[in-house]
Amino acid sequence: MLFLVSLIGIVYSTQLTLVEPSLTIPSTKNASMPVNVADFGYVPYGRTVSGNLTYIENTCNPLNITLNSTIVLTMGATCKFLAQAMNVQSAGGKMLVIIYNHEEDISNFLLIAEYGSQQSFIPTMMINKADGEFLIEELKTMSIYVSVSFELKQQEIVDLQYFLSSFDLFSYLFLDEFLPFAKQMINKITFDPIYIQFYCKECERTGYKATNQNCISGGRYCGQDPDSNGPLTGRDVILEDLRQICILQKYDLITWWNYMIFFNKLCFNNYQECPSKIMKSISINETTISNCMTSSFVGNNQLLDDNTLLKEQRFKIMRNHQVYWPSLYINGEFYKGDLYLNNANESTVFNVDDFAVLEAICDGFLDDSRPTLCNATGFFSIQDGEIKDQTSSLIIILIWVGISMLVLFLLLISFLFIRRMMLKKVRDDVGSQVDTYLKNYYKMPEAQ
């Protein structure tokens, strides 16, 4: 399933540039046009993707052609954008550019794919309708070579802002997979979790004087009901958000991160006493956190009084115009691409180069401040919050596979050699017997 989400206010700086021939795009009056990069697939931050542009009107069905690493331009269609990307990828294309089939500005939308769907390994992006129609017309008479550079602002210390919700399962996938990497670059990053919240418009009109089961502070801070007709409400979500904010404020980042990992594993099916048990198990003082939560309200009534910590969260959300989660900002720029390894678990062995979000974070460092981890290569797995180097294990496995193949090959050669010798002996024996029988036959009277 793929969604087109409105994100008015976010500015995308990535441009598609016409390299050869030199053309002026009517809408921008230069050789570059804005693109909206899809929030799925592999986005190669720190690199430039270039190639000849090939127009294919419809990419909804498998393409019975070989694209030879060209960049595909296609019209927007009713099928899923991810399905189009997969078809282009299968045919050998290196990037997909989709023409938006409406007049609206593409910067108002975010293209995302549902977790667990097929995984694309090429970047996908959208361009405005007028720019796409210009390219289609020019491609009728000439070849066009284009390039797109995927760049992030670089800093000595990388700033990460992560938008999440405490009762959103997908919010924990990135935290679970990125924890071992975060431990190794803890002194090189700042990490600011920002909890998504809503507010009650009707409550605002009446001065936040009414209570709502999905809100606190008179309706200023609300959450989605996590279990519909179950015992939990949106108010529980907001209060858990507040607890997690206090844990980060009173302890260090790794302690907060460990709480999050345990919460994900233990609390979704049995929430009531779960936070207390986790805090005790990892030496978080529950009284300290409770006092932090209480003191963050400007009065004694949590149902009606404002909350300073949640107000700060609201400011961060409004500043980034962010309504979609989980999502990540790297050095103030909205990260596009897969946030996690699709369908990965502790038995999954992956190439560290395939963890796209790690590559993007590494690209956010200045060259002379890159952590050692950013230069790592090879195969890894994530087990109990730690990175396990699987390269040597894979080499051993490959050696044993090679030895096994060699032994099988030698056995096959030996078998064929023995078989050939046996067949030769059988032929010689049969031939000798036939000669004997023929000699005896010609000696018989009847053969005279």
From TrEMBL:
Q: Which Pfam families match?
A: PA, VSR_TRX
**Positions of the Vacuolar sorting receptor thioredoxin-like domain:** 174-340
Please give the chief subcellular localization of this protein: membrane
Keywords linked to the UniProt accession: Glycoprotein, Membrane, Repeat, Signal, Transmembrane, Transmembrane helix
Q: How does the record classify its membrane topology? A: Single-pass membrane protein; Single-pass type I membrane protein
Q: Where is the PA domain?
A: 66-133
The listed locations are: Endomembrane system; Membrane
An example of a Gene Ontology cellular component annotation for this protein is: membrane
Regions that span the bilayer: 394-418
Descriptive protein name: PA domain-containing protein
